[in-house]
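Good morning N.,

You mentioned wanting to compare the apo and holo forms, so I went ahead and generated the holo version with CU-O-CU linkage. This is what I fed in:
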Amino acid sequence: ARIRHYKWDVKNEFKSPDCFKKLVITINGRSPGPTILAQQGDTIIVELKNSLITENLAIHWHGIRQIGSPWFDGTEGVTQCPIQPGETFKYQFVVDRPGTYLYHAHYGMQRDAGLYGSIRVALPDGELEPFAYDYDRSVILNDWYHKSTNELSTGLSSIPFQWVGEPQSLLIQGRGKFDCSSLTSPSSTDPKVCNSSNPECSPYVLTVIPGKTYRLRVSSLTSLSALSFQIEGHNMTVVEADGHYVEPFVVKNLFIYSGETYSVLIKTDQNPTRNYWMQTNIVSRSSNTSAGLAILNYYPNHPKRSPPSSPSEGPKWDDVDPRLAQSLSIKARKGMGRAPPQTSDRVIVLLNTQNEVNGFRRWSVNNVSFQHPKTPYLISLKHKLTGQFDEKPPPDGYDFANYNIYVKQNNSNATTSNGIYRLKFNTTVDIILQNANTMNPNNSETHPWHLHGHDFWVLGYGSGKFDIDNDPKKYNLVDPIEKNTVPVHPYGWTALRFVANNPGTWAFHCHIESHFYMGMGIVLEEGIERVGKLPSSILGCGASKGLRVP
Ligand code: C2O
Ligand code: CU
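and this is what came out, ligand included:
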């Protein structure tokens, strides 16, 4: 195993990823940032300089479990104090599993500003993947807003509430195309503000050699949107999800939710005299945002030549069935999955609802809307700093018998809290995520939930209200896939199982940036007494002010 050392400088820069100029947060001048390439067992060291001048910073290594290094999970308010302007912070962790992972800002809604990238962990020398391919490539999918992160987040926490709305464009590997002619205010039609011929917003080009097999690692870090991804004329065979091998299945379009990663195999066996569209479309929400487009360039055609066809319509946005069907078809690859424990020690049912709390629009889990404490949990628990968060844990369930998930509810007893779930070390925990109607009539959304510090087995999905007596009998305990991010479909439920064996404090939240900001998340603690000495670099905020050694 090797040590991979990176030096990153994070700063604000003007960029035009979709032709519209805005302030972007870059790493070493780039957004998406540099890809971390490593082998299983390597140690990654990232020396991060915060050159943002006025903004704090924290970076989360999404999908990396941080076994033995819970303090470097990068979750502001949970595992560390924010990195202040001018500071340099050193993250150090081991990548213990092969696969496709991500990194992104985890402070406020900073991820929206373009601070993200991918992590690719290869097998050790001499070990082979259970499938063959000639080339390995990756693309990150995203959605993009023209308003600044501060404007978006301030709107969400204002009275009256100002929703972020649909994104202005969809990006593929950091590039999209906003139609500058649709701008109306004279200042914004200035070509210095929006310029369709700016090379920064020419589509991303993936050049391929005809007759080969490509492993394409597709991941999503959208702020809001659920996406469908497709490559014109090419089927995709899904082989990996969130770092775990999938029993292969073929799709024409891949549904992908924020925080998920997949590897698909594609054969470049189509007419080699032309190029093809790679495209993303928004599903699950009614949106006017135009498709995200990139070019699959068959060598030696000109990489900039547009495909002769027009991009496709994409699937119907409100058709839940094919999305549920894809979720159900993801199973562990035969002979390669780890079997889950057959029973669990604790079952937590989390009802996801939209509420109004003290006049603010919030998202809640069992009527509790999450709020960050001033002192990160890892620090207050490890250093026994009392009174730093609500001692009362949030509830393990909701009023199953009487709650109608299909209608708009007032949920007038909803509160905000920073209480957390304390898990007994090494126990097996089931979490059932239950979706419901929002505050709009006849509306339920898709929420991709992401768990830090663990992979979980996906035991099942269902529509309607989870039935605690009968639905567990239908769990897949034979070949469930392990993942770290999973969708909860509209008016549906998703059941997960994991073992609480990673000492630390871990966020579990909806990966939609505005939903987590509005309280849609929880924090779990396990084995705090086994956590080693905290590095001084994560200390210094809230009640840990005096603990930091300079
Ligand atoms: Cu990728 Cu807590 O997030
Ligand atoms: Cu959500």
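The longest strand covers residues 3-15.

Happy to go through it together on a call whenever suits you.

Best,
F.
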